[in-house]
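Reading a protein record of the kind used here takes only a little practice. An example makes this concrete, so a full record is given next.
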Amino acid sequence: MDQLLAIRAFARVVEVGTFTKAADSLEMPKASLTKLIQALEAHLRVKLLQRTTRSVSVTTEGAAYYEKTMRLLRELDDVDNSFGAVQSRPRGHLRIDIGSSTANLILVPALPEFFARYPDIRIDLGVSDRHVDLIGDSVDCVIRGGVLTDMALIGREIGKVPMVTCATPTYLKQHGIPTHPDQLEKDHIVVSYLSPRTSRPVPMIFARAGKKMDVVGTRTVGANESNAHLAAGLAGLGIIQTFVYTAKPHLESGALVPILENWQPPPYPFHVVYPPNRYVSNRLRVFIDWIADRFSALAS
């Protein structure tokens, strides 16, 4: 038995909750992973996992073994990553979850530069605006905008992105141009961005001379995905508030017109988020530093 591989296999089952997900994340057949854990349990003469046809749970002994072996695995990874060859040429597989407009407009177009710098790293992208279970979905990190609300996760702010409030010329011709944010509550129609987590509309935010306003507005359409949200605005269905990088080509072409420019929304923070019990590998560190540079360019 490869005991180190068996320990890693056991740890992944604990983290993701199923043998299938653990095998997929380790890129091995499920049967091989099962044999490794069975061999580990036989070696220890202890039941680590309680298995049924529908679920996997960790025994008391398994939980204690996981805590102790995770410390050892992190120390081993520290040793491996402390040597020059690994530091100068990070390698391996990253699973990254990212919002759709950020992926399409920021990350993916820049990936050729990243791979030119780090040719031995492979990236799998999960692209959506949905809420992700970092551990259960076997994700190394998530790139998301907004304030961090889950204190069980570790996040690094990688930049603040300017926002814009805008609408189509056709919409503004029909409804007029608002001069104050409170007019969006009763005199105008908005296209709401709906939180993928709660399905509630995310308020538009306005700020001026130290005063801040949150406006939900009246909507006929809401969308929980950023590209659909933009498309609804471009269709003239209402006023939208979105990232400048998303709206920029449409602002330049005149398809969208900025409004309420004296009430600029504050820049929107973006974070890279990862689980506290997940070792931050050298490949993840270099990716985080690189994507932070990409976001810093957006703010300039």
